[in-house]
Amino acid sequence: MSTSYSDRVLAALHDSTLAATSVSRTTRPTPFYIIASPRALCGKTFLALLMADYLFQDGGNVDAYDLNPGEYALAACRPGITTKADLSTTPGQIALFDRLIANEGKAKLIDLGYSLFERFFDVCEQIEFIEAVRRRGFEVIILFPAEPHPSATAAYEHMQRRFPHAVLVPVLNEAILKGERVHESYQVDRESAAALQVPLMPPVLKTYADRLSQSLAHVRAQLPTNMPKSHALELRSWTRGVFVEFREFELRLTLEKLRTSLRT
Amino acid sequence: MAKPAVLIVGADKGGVGKTTVSRTLLDYFAAHQIPTRAFDTEAPKGTLKRFYPDASEIVDMNLVPDQMKIFDTLSGSHASVTVIDVRAGLLSPTLQSLRDIGFIEAAKKGQITFGVFHILGPTITSLDEISETAAYLGDAKYFMVKNFINNTHYFQWDEQTCSAYFKKVKDVVEITIPKLNEMACEQVDLASVPYLSFIANKKLSGDAASYSFVLRGYVRHWLGNVWAEYDRIKLTDLVAARAQADSIQQPRAAAG
After folding, report:
1. B199 vs A126: CB contact, 8 Å cut-off?
2. CA distance A73 to A77
3. Among B199, B218, B231, beta carbon nearest to A13
4. CB distance from B52 to chain A under 8 Å?
5. Which of A161, A225, B4, B127 has its CA 20 to 30 A from that of A22?
6. What gap in Å lies between CA B66 and CA B212, rounded to an integer?
7. pLDDT in tens, chain B (256 residues)
């Protein structure tokens, strides 16, 4: 797409403010996860919780942001690492984005409520947020809970076109999909963005997991005592499976980066 | 060498965003490396001067010495473009003075490029200004600026009324200034820096500042849209009109 001279001047000015913080290609980018869908009740917060726990066990370096005004379920479950955020006012946006842009080597995670889906990405587009965080050494990964609903598939396709520099990954959560096949509606545009699978958590385990005050990362190290041992073992096994899925995704991403850097 | 260009930014009403538009113009010319000077007629304090202390000067358009300071120096100045931010209520009197000193005639002969940015208010009365102003315009480029920066609603306007008024001016060009996030607008004012410095996160001194990333993003997005309007009307072509080309046209204009 051609840009005007005026656009190029403004882009150069914008870049000059970011250049000092750009990281070299050899440095591993800091992950920046956004869990997003325009649909309610598709497992966004549960996925955010899993990813927060995964990142937490991976060195404890994660800053999570809960953008679900009125609910703030992630902040309630993981208060130590989660900040409640709001986009309805400009001061709220400043408080959020000005913190998000700072790269201190900690992974970032946003649990984006469906009601703020459009607003959040509109602001991102206006202030060119995705580009800016990439230049500050983050890898932006949008985890999109897949659903067969047309509004979800349309939003996914739109996101793919709208933010080509973000890694858009569909997440196939068996508890949400209930056996429905949606692969064809969620095409990926790069190898590393292959769909993530979240296996069905048996309902009895879900009850325990919801009540669990500790991180699922801790369950891997120490079995919880407030549930039968068989359930605790099953929960640990289930968590391990999900975390392996996340780890493999990260490896795919690293491999892709490596290949790209070898080619250039 | 390019012939001098004079751009007047004004309105007969106050608070419609004259200085805002002047600031976007100064930034636009700076970005395009077109040497520009500005005159702030908000004597004695000045508003534009606060943002561009080096490039602007406060003048009183009612005083002949100040009029001389602007118009007698057009050819000798290093700047090829002169932007005059005319204070509220002085647009028509200023244009009248320009006619009296022969400026409008010089523009007609092609010796000077002359443009008027008329910032319109939200009510029908601001359209009445057009007839008054049009009488003095001669061959000036006339830009009607609808300024939405303060979320203004042009509630009394309709297409028929507008076109009736616009017909009174030859080759009128409409420009729209979109809304800027209120807090971003406030913070740039508070920082007292050009929009470009705010986007580049710099103070007036050139030292690094710590403006909000979000607000800088909003300002950048907004200024990009404003400049797209200036690109659309080919503003750089207008002010960079070559004297040589004019010399061919001058005899015809003089004959007419």
Report:
1. no
2. 6
3. B199
4. no
5. A161
6. 40
7. 568 999 999 887 777 889 999 999 999 999 999 999 999 998 888 889 999 999 999 999 888 999 899 998 988 788 889 999 998 888 888 888 888 888 888 888 888 999 999 888 766 666 666 666 777 777 788 898 888 876 656 655 666 766 766 676 667 888 999 999 999 999 999 999 999 999 999 999 999 999 999 999 999 999 999 999 999 999 999 887 544 434 433 333 333 2
